[in-house]
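ugh ok fine here u go
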Amino acid sequence: MKPASLNPVHVIGGGLAGSEAAWQVAEAGVPVVIHEMRPVRATDAHKTEALAELVCSNSFRSDDSSGNAVGQLHWEMRRLGSLIMAKGDAHQVPAGGALAVDRDGFSQAVTAALEAHPLVSIERGEIAGLPPAAWDNVIVATGPLTSPGLAQGLQALTGEDSLAFFDAIAPIVHVDSIDMETAWFQSRYDKAGPGGTGADYINCPLTKDQYEAFIDALLSAEKTEFKEWEGTPYFDGCLPIEVMAERGRETLRWGPMKPVGLTNRHNPTVKPHAVVQLRQDNALGTLFNMTGFQTKLKYGEQAAIFRMIPGLQNAEFARLGGIHRNTYLNSPKLLDDLLRLKADPRLRFAGQITGCEGYVESAATGLLAGRMAAAARLGRALPLPPATTALGALVNHITGGHIETIDEGPRSFQPMNINFGLFPPIAGVATTGPDGKRLKGPARSIARKQALTARAKEAMDAWARSVAAEITPAAPPATGSIAGASPAG
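structure:
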């Protein structure tokens, strides 16, 4: 079927996710229309009308594809012919082991590439509500600053509690970095609850002196200020721990650090003065979140203060806590495996609105959503990338990899960056080094990460070859290929 005879895919939002999605659709030989509301309607954060504008940092983070999860995602996106990665590479600036870009040059290059593509149209104007019924294949990639009209339309379609407007995030810890010689598994009063065992939480005990030192550190730590356009998003049940501490030194002991209903298995005759609980965060059981520990402390302060907690002295954090303006779906409940809205499958979602965080992760979901939308338009089936790849692990988190909770605090599904805790565990990691000596501590962690990324590369390479037919442009082929990109197949 010739491109001219195909109805276009509509992409709402011209950020990194929307730009990448549109590129992937067009490269598959399918017409695409990008709907970007700037400059007709400005936002409080953007400064230009260019596509793929970087609002905050100019960094795509680590480019190490052998020992870093986001570096592995870079590798996979390059392997799949990503426009965002190609233009990022072309406009990089010195940043050590990270990939940082000249933000103006980068966004102008992405805009120019899309404007020049014969199958891409760009329409400026707000989609102030649900897309028209005549649009049968839509990608919504509107990000954290989704327009009020569209957000209201999605809420009306999915329910009042389906859309969150602020993150209230507690730190998340890699479980294998917790000292279980100090901490122990137990639910409060040994209650099993729905789906539980009575030993579902990891508990970290504090003496009175340790608790007082922890409170002193909280009260004196530096906090991150809200941006002017974020307002003051505190709401009941989600107060930052430092705000609770400011309300009284004992407040946390009556809240998330209450020591009741628990017996220290390592010292059963001594009751802890306070307890920090961690709850399983993902279905793989590799990540645990610090229950009730949402915070606005600066990242450097968080890592130092939380490692004061016995059992967490060597904690490795998959993500640190925060509270900030966002707009994201309760994706595990609302989206199917193909990132489509169950209540209206013509709508597919990409970027931060799905519940991922970061430029790279947003663009990665845009890449996959674009390919899915194009395959659907061409009447082809596109299987999901394996969960052992970074892209597959990220989508698995979005569509159902977390643990649903029913107790107090913020919603259980929270946005997240790609990290090794989202990858399925791996067996057969080397336990000795080239010298024959047993690997310990950081060396063992490095070996595990290298094994995970090696497995991911092999799986992604196989997947890319297997789906080459689904992403081959329809005849005649598109003419806007980017120099330096490595298409699959």
